[in-house]
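Letters spell out the chain; the tokens describe the backbone. To illustrate:

===
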Amino acid sequence: MISRVLIANRGEIALRVIRACRELDIESVVVHSQADAGAPYLDLADEAICIGPGPSAQSYLSIPSIISAAEIANVDAVHPGYGFLSENAHFAEVCRANNIEFIGPDEATIRRVGDKAEAKAAAKAAGIPVIEGSDGPVESDEEALAVAHKVGYPVLIKAVSGGGGRGMRIAHNDISLAANLLTAKSEAEIAFGDPSVYIEKYLEEPRHVEIQILADRQGNVIHLGDRDCSVQRRHQKVIEEAPSPGVPADVRSKMGRAAVKLAKSVGYHGAGTVEFLFDNKKFYFMEVNARIQVEHPVSELITGVDLIKEQIRLAAGEPLGRKQQQIRPKGHAIECRINAEDPERGFAPSPGDITLHHAPGGPGVRVDSHVTSGYRVPPYYDSMIGKLLVYADSREEAVTRMRRALDEYRIEGVKTNLPLHRRILRNAYFERGEYTTRFLDELLSS
């Protein structure tokens, strides 16, 4: 069993891993930048090590700095959290070359599923429905035009590497395709160091639905049901819920089986997510996230499975402790991502000092956050400062509970997206579960 873990991340996910380690009687070592020095969650780890200045390129993305910290701390394993180096195959390779277990898939699998074009090819080979498009990266404007004319406009240009909406553009005609192809390639090069993009048919009003999987080194794979991530702003998730209110039970079962089949076909192990688009009663493979995701707690709430603990156990080589028939999702969970953003300035980041942080509570309410009153939100990182979750027996009760929890939440000193969440939870379409990936952009433009 792993006895000492270095957490190569920050904020709420670092705190989440610290808590899981403590419950497993595992020592935790957390790294931090100079900007995060003094953050309250650092005191909960067994050891904290500064790895550099505030900018992430000099700290949380610095592989030499993190490996040095791991060696100094004499750890058995590294937990990468999400973002930063969590899907970096080279980082996983360096960890294992230094006899440090990387809590995630092996580097070959990360490379295979991290390349969206290759992952799509693997899904297609496994007999899983995929969206029409190029068979791989497009090498020229002429090739892109040929694909667009074959599948029909609109089309989506997508970066082969990375995610989070970067390197992604929609084209509605030949002129916009040429312009957006250049923009997408440039953005992908800056964000991921890889300008490669591919083309696929753009589904205008789908639901974004994903399946949580767990896989051990013995070849066993299970799924923990679905999550709906369709409430997005510019391809960035804002609210997630489980199960999806718009997917029929038979389709949900088929998606789950497809996710398991794909994971087995690529030799996946650890925790991961297979993402799909659901449109017109059909689902299509989108991508694989070879890591834990921000929204993993909604799956925990409806299944009772601690996904971070499972990640650590699986990395230690333990077999899955559950069979598929033992996973029986129950009730309904909703997560709101709480971001330090200014709605009046186009949701620009709002760093600064939090003068008051009063989290809601009561039955069925969970807050995953590393911030407290007096905490300073640094300007260098993602604007998310926490996640508000609720659980109830039904979706109707969960929506009502989330409204109540949002009304209780008080954050002062920085701007947040709490007003946006309150508006969404009182929207008639959201209340009925009748929304797609275009819902939030249309709400904000109305």
In short: The domain at 132-201 is CATH 3.30.1490.20 (Dna Ligase; domain 1).
